[in-house]
Amino acid sequence: MDRDWMRQRLEAFDELVTQYWNVRHVNGDTTQERKWLFEAEPTVVKILRRLDPSLVEVEVLGEDEWRGLTINLNEVRRAIGILADMDEWATRLALDGPSMPADGFHPWVWDAARTFWESRHYRAAVHAAATSINAHLQDKIGRRDVSDTKLVQEALSDKAPEPGKPRLRIPGDPTEPGVQTRQRGALQLGQGAYFALRNPAAHETGDLTEQEALEQLATFSVLARLIDMCQVVT
Questions:
Q1: CA distance 183 to 47
Q2: CB burial readout 67-98, b (16+ within 10 A) else e
Q3: Which helix (H) or strand (E) holds 138?
Q4: How far apart are CA 229 and CA 212, in angstroms?
Q5: In 3-state terms, what secondary structure has residue 71?
Q6: What is the pLDDT of residue 67?
Q7: Is pLDDT at 64 greater than 80 in this prediction?
Q8: With 0-12 CB in 10 A as exposed, 13-18 as middle and 19+ as buried, what is 15?
Q9: Which of 20, 95, 134, 231 has a CA-to-CA distance to 194 between 20 and 30 Å?
Q10: Is the dihedral of CA 4, 5, 10, 13 positive or negative?
Q11: What is the pLDDT of residues 79-104, one digit of tens each?
Q12: Residues 219, 213: Cα–Cα separation, whole Å
């Protein structure tokens, strides 16, 4: 909706009504003003109905039994007020949403991303977080021969450990369905994070928005916590 235009038309109609009453008070000849009012009324009515669909029977202009003009300005002025404040309603009356302080992310993520974040290099912050998780995961399982997605795939694989290929296991009884589900989920989350977030951060140009970067860091923070809590099985 073109709110500025709607408000302008309603305010112009309000001013025209004032002009009509002034002319009527002075000389009583309101022929021209009546003409302008009736020409403007259809648009005014459509605006009122668009703002409030319940006003299907709204009537702004009418005539009394002596053919005198009756004018209902209540809904017009109400609509002007609505249009004046409508843009602020979305922000001023919005429910308070949850906040996500970045310094609450897992240290592997935030310690690596902080410097880039403070300088507003958001894509670099995401890449640094992914690189940090990779380094900590390599240290945790003692491997340097693979990295990034391949490292996550092998570390979180549900296959049995092999010589030189230790695995990470979610704490708990590995025969329980809930533990098995979390194990599979950790693997899939890690793969998705590196495929969908780390790779673009490393190879694509152009920066992320602050919101996009925050969401991506949150994803890596979840992954970091899962990896950190896992037990190494050799």
A1: 57
A2: eebebeeebbeebbebbeeeeeeeeeeeeeee
A3: helix 122-141
A4: 26
A5: strand
A6: 66
A7: no
A8: exposed
A9: 231
A10: positive
A11: 999 998 887 887 788 777 777 888 89
A12: 10
Q: How, if at all, do strands 167-169 and 61-63 pair?
A: unpaired
Q: What span, in angstroms and rounded, lies between the C-alpha atoms of 48 and 226? A: 55
User: What gap in Å lies between CA 137 and CA 151, rounded to an integer?
Assistant: 8
Q: Is residue 167 packed enough to be buried (19+ CB in 10 Å), middle (13-18) or exposed (0-12)?
A: buried
148: left (phi over 0), alpha (psi -120 to 50) or beta: left
Instruction: Write down the residue that tokens 């958001």 correspond to.
Output: 122
Element (H, E) at 89: helix 74-92
Bridge partners of residue 234, in order along the sequence:
none
Q: Which two tokens stand for residue 207?
A: 């920066």
The C-alpha atoms of residue 109 and residue 176 are separated, in whole angstroms, by: 30
- Amino acid present at 207: D
